[in-house]
Amino acid sequence: LNMERDLRRAIQCDELEPYFQPQYDLAKMELIGFEALVRWKHPTRGLLPPVEFIDLAEKTHMIVEIGYVVFERACAQLEQMQQHTKSSLAMSINMSPRQLEDEDLIEKLTSIMDRYNTNPGNLLLEITENVVMSKTAKTLEVLNSIKALGIQIALDDFGTGYSSISYLQEFPFDQIKIDRQFIVNSHQNETDVRLVKLIVGMAETLGLEAVAEGIDNIEQLSKLQELDCSLGQGYLFSKPVTGWEAMKLVTGEK
Ligand code: G
Ligand code: G
Ligand code: MN
Ligand code: NA
């Protein structure tokens, strides 16, 4: 209960802020964009990762408010970064199912994008497989409205849920993010290699971009390059960093 009050205050006092994990084109080894990952700068407990507060935020619906905070901060960050580079950068933002149920979603996203001159084509909203499984008709309608704004949609944590190939066709996805569990042993376990190969091939067949999550070492990277997985992120490249550090990655400053 204290924690709930604490989180409400955190939203008011601007204690929530996204960190940014860089994403790379694996063939060219070029920075292509970032995933925004929320952190809580707690006044006494230090920097808290999402696992410490996202469940509570979902249960209390505070995740809707937090979602707009993260979306706005990510758009602001992207606007700043685009002033320092000619290449167009992607910004991926995680969305909880509750956010998709918010009546004002489309209006609010539109007004935030207007405020920061965001090119909607540079944004991706990540939803998990569980979202896809529940509330199919309404979810599909909302995702189509998001697509109509020009924003792309990524299916997060792919392989951990129960989505079928028919869902992948039916929903307006642009990208699938291969869950870290398949990447972890993809340099040493033949079954995992075959699964990743299968997912990359399926993505290509369906016209979707494949993103590997949690690339930790060079062997995993080499395997993913060999399998033509187009994009990736992970500690090998960088952990999630502050907006300031993300900016330095873009400008090439040390
Ligand atoms: O940064 P970290 O690996 O601890 O993030 C763990 C998970 O927390 C992410 O995979 C994502 O599912 C969730 N998460 C991170 N940031 C956000 C956010 O801004 N909104 C929502 N809904 N989930 C987030
Ligand atoms: O959205 P999602 O739940 O997939 O968020 C990705 C999370 O995974 C982030 O919280 C990030 O901190 C974490 N992460 C990113 N890259 C790596 C990695 O290479 N190894 C591990 N163990 N975790 C990672
Ligand atoms: Mn994600
Ligand atoms: Na994920």
UniProtKB/TrEMBL annotation:
Per UniProt, residues of the EAL domain are 1-254
Renumbered to this chain, the signal peptide range is none
What is the protein name for this chain?
Answer: Bifunctional diguanylate cyclase/phosphodiesterase
Span of the entire protein shown here: 270 to 523 of 571
